[in-house]
Amino acid sequence: MTSRLLDALSEGPPPRDNLLDRPVEATELTPLVRQTQATTPSLTTAYGPGKEPILTVGLMANRGVTVPPTPVVFILGCVDSGACRTLVPLSVAVRLGLQANELTLDQGSFGGVGSSISTWSSSVPVLGTVMAFPETASPAQPWGPVVDLNPSFTDLLPEPATLLGRADFFRAFVITFNEDSAAPSFCIQQR
Question: Is the pTM of this model over 0.85?
Fold first, then answer.
């Protein structure tokens, strides 16, 4: 399954302005990703002052061998050290081909500052990989390991941004934030 995800991703995501079903601001996708030549592969992404640390991630439901293959869905995710789990809009579960009987209402709730929402978990594993946009105009490329995610899906409206959380996404990487007031960035390093 991992090689199928990488094969699908090697074709690259759709053009940058078609990643989501909503208009995408240029500032969400223009952050340059720079790979450093370190012993452990790392990826540094700049984001504007007052903006969120955003990555493009390719997601796929891991159903083993299926015909036709399960779709790869490209999302923009905020790298969020405050999120215990990855949180994804329920519409992404639909786009991944997940069925209602494969989603279970989570006990308790997913909470944030002063709020809580209902979430669902999938019985079908969800895989993800970071997509790197090089400095040149070349298409995005898969970067780093394929990560076993355990996302929570929410039907909150309006749809929230995807949050890449600690229990799954952060376990695959060492993530460092540089909150420079003029040029903030974050670095993800493979474990």
Answer: no
